[in-house]
Design goal:
Layout lengths: L1 H27 L1 E6 L4 E6 L4 E6 L9 H31 L9
Antiparallel strand pairs: 1-2, 2-3
Length: about 100
Amino acid sequence: MMGNMNKMMKQVQKMQADMAKMQEEVALKTVEGTAGGGVIKVVANGKQEVLSVEIKPEAVDPDDVEMLQDMILAAVNDALRKSQEMVAQEMGKITGGLKIPGLF
């Protein structure tokens, strides 16, 4: 009985170490969200931080600022969604697809 408990604790410790390493790695990985056919580009990392926003000149219409705002929001949300998917995919490699509430 004690041997099984020790084995399980070692597995938990390995999973914790793997998750810490994965968190460091996804913080360095980036994803790109776009809107307006690519005239707005947002880059985010695996920590769901927006790293850059690129707006091509043809996206700017002074008479339609709301459209620009909507495209920026769409691109940011696209990048953050892709970032979350990337983290979930990496987490699945560690947990074998097991969903652990509160981790990500």
